[in-house]
C-alpha cells in the first residue's frame, strides 16, 4: 500500500494504471475509519482494479469550528486498517494541497439543499461539492463510493456529477450499524457512555415511525410522538425528523405508500451531532 500526499506523487501511479487499462475506484473519507468506511472499501475492491482511499478532514464543510477542531484523527490505525484490506493507495493531502488558495466559487444546490442538512448546516454542501470536485479532478477515478448513511450528500453528489458532466460512476453503499442498531460514525467515539446509551433513540425512532406509518397512522401524529420521545431523553436534542422523497429531497406532509419515501433524522447527544435515515418505501 502506497501513501501519497500530492498530485505529483499520484500522477505517476495514475499514468501507470491508465496505461495498463486499470479502472480506478475512489473512496473519499475524513478518516477515523470504522467498519462502515471499510464496507465502502470492500465494495471498491470488488468493483475496481486500483483502489484509492482519501483521508482529508475538509475544513470548508464544517459550519461549526468546534466540531472541526475536535474531529477525531487516528491516521496510524486508519492506515493499518486500510493495509489489512489490501488497499492500493491512500491519498492523504495536506490543506495546502487541496486549498492552495481559498476557493472563490460557491456551489448552490438549489432546492436540494433547502431542507435537512442544508438548513441546519449552512455552507456545508458547498464545502462538500468543492472538495469532492477537487478529489475527482486530482485522482480522476472511474468510480466513487459513498455511504447511504449520508443520504442527502449522495443526492448532492449525484447532482454535481450530472450538472458538470463528470465521468464518474457513483456507487452507494448501505449503512453499516453497530449490533444495537446505531449507525456507525466517526463521531460515535466522542460519545460518553450515557450519550451512547441514549443515542439509540435515533434508530429506534426511525423504526417506530416506519412501523406506525405502514400500520396507517398519520405522519403528523407520528412526527409529534417522536418529538415527545426525544423530549424524554435529557441528553438528546432533536434537530429534525422528516419524511422526504429520497432522491428529490422534498418534504412530505402526508405519507403515501405509492410514493418513494425515507425518514431522515438529525439530533445532538450532548455536543455530538448525529444523523441517520431509513427507507420507508424504497
Ligand atoms: P466520512 O469520513 O464521515 O466523511 O464518511 C466517508 C464516507 O463513508 C461517506 O461516503 C459516508 O457516507 C460513508 N459512511 C460513513 N458512515 C457510514 C456507515 N455507517 N455506513 C456506510 N457508509 C458510511
Task: Give a structural overview.
The chain has a 6-stranded parallel sheet with strand order 1-4-3-2-5-6, sandwiched between helices. Strands 7-8-9 form a 3-stranded antiparallel sheet. It is built from 11 helices and 9 strands. The mean pLDDT is 98. The protein is α/β, with parallel strands linked by helices. Adenosine monophosphate binds at residues 29-30, 36-37, 39-40, 146-147, 149-150, 173, 175-176, 183-186.
Quick recap:
The chain has 282 residues and is an alpha/beta fold. It has 11 helices and 9 strands.
Shape: globular
Strand order of the largest sheet: 1-4-3-2-5-6
Elements, N to C (H/E): EHEHEHHEHHHEHEHHHEEE
| Gyration radius over CA | 19 Å
Structural class comes to: alpha/beta
Average pLDDT value? 98
Amino acid at each position: 500500500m502506497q501513501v501519497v500526499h500530492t498530485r505529483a506523487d499520484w500522477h505517476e501511479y495514475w499514468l501507470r494504471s491508465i496505461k495498463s487499462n486499470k479502472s480506478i475506484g475512489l473512496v473519499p473519507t475524513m478518516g477515523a475509519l470504522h467498519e462502515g468506511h471499510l464496507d465502502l472499501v470492500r465494495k471498491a475492491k470488488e468493483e475496481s482494479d486500483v483502489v484509492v482511499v482519501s483521508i482529508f478532514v475538509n475544513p470548508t464543510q464544517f459550519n461549526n469550528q468546534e466540531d472541526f477542531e475536535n474531529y477525531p484523527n487516528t491516521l496510524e490505525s486508519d492506515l493499518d486498517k486500510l493495509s489489512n484490506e489490501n488497499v492500493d493507495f491512500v491519498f492523504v493531502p495536506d490543506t495546502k494541497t487541496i486549498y492552495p488558495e481559498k476557493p472563490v466559487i460557491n456551489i448552490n444546490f438549489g432546492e436540494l439543499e433547502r431542507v435537512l442538512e442544508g438548513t441546519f448546516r449552512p455552507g456545508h454542501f458547498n464545502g462538500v461539492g468543492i472538495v469532492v470536485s477537487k478529489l475527482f479532478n486530482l485522482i480522476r477515478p472511474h468510480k466513487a463510493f459513498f455511504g447511504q448513511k449520508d443520504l442527502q450528500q449522495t443526492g448532492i453528489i449525484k447532482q454535481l456529477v450530472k450538472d458538470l458532466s463528470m465521468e464518474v460512476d457513483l456507487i452507494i453503499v448501505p449503512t453499516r450499524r453497530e449490533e444495537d442498531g446505531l449507525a456507525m460514525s466517526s463521531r460515535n467515539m466522542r460519545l460518553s457512555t450515557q450519550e451512547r446509551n441514549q443515542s439509540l433513540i435515533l434508530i429506534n425512532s426511525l423504526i417506530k415511525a416506519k412501523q406506525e406509518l405502514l400500520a396507517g397512522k398519520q405522519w403528523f401524529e407520528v412526527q409529534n410522538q417522536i418529538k415527545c420521545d426525544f423530549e424524554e431523553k435529557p441528553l438528546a436534542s432533536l434537530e429534525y425528523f422528516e419524511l422526504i422523497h429520497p432522491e428529490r429531497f422534498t418534504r412530505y406532509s402526508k405519507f403515501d405508500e405509492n410514493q418513494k419515501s425515507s425518514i431522515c433524522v438529525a439530533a445532538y447527544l450532548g455536543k455530538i451531532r448525529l444523523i441517520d435515515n431509513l427507507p420507508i418505501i424504497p
